[in-house]
Amino acid sequence: MSEDEPITVSERVRSVPPSGIRRFFELAEEMDDVVSLGVGEPDFTAPWRARQAAIESLERGQTSYTANRGKRELREAIAADCEARYGLDYDPDDEVLVTAGASEAIDLAFRALVDPGDTVAVAQPSYVSYVPGVVFADGEVLSVPTRAEDEFVLTPEALSSVGAEGADLLVMCYPNNPTGATMDREQLAEVAAFAREHDLVVLSDEIYSELTYEGEHTSIATLPGMRERTVVFNGFSKAYAMTGLRLGYALGPASAIGAMNRVHQYTMLSAPTTAQHAALTAIEECGDEVVEMRRQYDRRRQFVLARFEEMGIDCFEATGAFYVFPECPWDDTDAFAEALLDAESVAMVPGDAFGAGGEDHLRVSYATGFDDLRTAMDRIERFVE
Ligand code: PMP
């Protein structure tokens, strides 16, 4: 601290580097004619009826806070949706919490459930928020790499270090960002058995649950003995293309949701009211739009996978979210991504930005219009040739 610079940033915050994804966006922003396969958000607009519900709520003057946990009607709709989809029964009063994006739910879970020094195992490659979230909660991160050979599924072998280190929590995300991997019921059953045996609490980020292309999504909370030790994160950003409305939710046992609400009621008060109106209509009336967006993502997924195969680039068959995770043709993924951007104006994100296991790969998002996607794949082909 000095007189010129009286503000000292906390050590905790200084220890977290800026997001590895952002650097490529900044480079891409300075260039013309860039096709970005780097984005992690839908290129679609939220369904019209959801937007209309938001507009109408404003016309009615509904600009106040809601209940801390979210509008009861919305919590009921979320619980009903979960029951219909998975047969999982959550009490809207004390087992559902509406948050400002799944992001807030993730942050709340760490702050409410992690004591200083607790070990949080994070299955990687993973979405970039988990590790900083654990650090901000003064927890210790144990990274659990998954492997390309296993199609980035979390296996009992991958989990062996978790038992040895005596972790308290496990964070996992399927369908996965950045790999596009999904896990079926049998694979999840092995993780569930491990969690029960080692008394692990599971934080399951299922925000891409609606974007599953082969078979139905299975929530790990549906496996025997898991509902009571799992907090599920989900939200409206991906399935309903509502990223900017900032609305998500957490489902879990009353003890965990109550603790998360304790933090939420002081730090957020309530999730955005206008967005809650949009979300209620989305969940109740916009299922057809979700089906149509999923159809379009699937068409793009198959196109991108086929093009990588034609180019001779190894890419496992991702079956969820809107990412594929090809192996990088060069040893240095950063150098490849920069050279591709420079030569062909196509942006993608080096896999190491997502932690252990991603080092030799690139994240390619197909949340981009089909024409742009075709242009990008043509350019990549020219570049690798
Ligand atoms: N989890 C994952 C795996 C994500 O990819 C994202 C968004 N990129 C989020 C959570 C955050 O979503 P939200 O917009 O609901 O905060």
Describe the structure.
Homodimer. It is a single chain. The strands form 3 sheets. Strands 2-8-7-6-5-3-4 form a 7-stranded mixed beta sheet, sandwiched between helices. It is of the alpha/beta class and 385 residues long. β3 (119-124), α6 and β4 form a beta-alpha-beta unit. The protein is globular and about 60 Å long. The longest helix has 25 residues, at 287-311. It contains 13 helices and 12 strands. The structure holds 4'-deoxy-4'-aminopyridoxal-5'-phosphate (PMP). 4'-deoxy-4'-aminopyridoxal-5'-phosphate binds at residues 40, 101-103, 127, 173, 177, 205, 207, 235, 237, 243, 248. Residues 40, 101-103, 127, 173, 177, 205, 207, 235, 237, 243, 248 line the site of 4'-deoxy-4'-aminopyridoxal-5'-phosphate.
Unreliable residue stretches:
none
Q: Main beta sheet, described?
A: 7 strands, mixed
Number of helices: 13
Provide the β-strand percentage band.
5-15%
Specify Rg, calculated over alpha carbons: 21 Å
Residue-averaged pLDDT: 95
Q: Could you tell me which ligands this complex binds, including any ions or cofactors?
A: 4'-deoxy-4'-aminopyridoxal-5'-phosphate
Structural class given helices, strands, pairing?
Answer: alpha/beta
In short:
Its EC number is 2.6.1.-. With 385 residues, the chain is α/β, with parallel strands linked by helices.
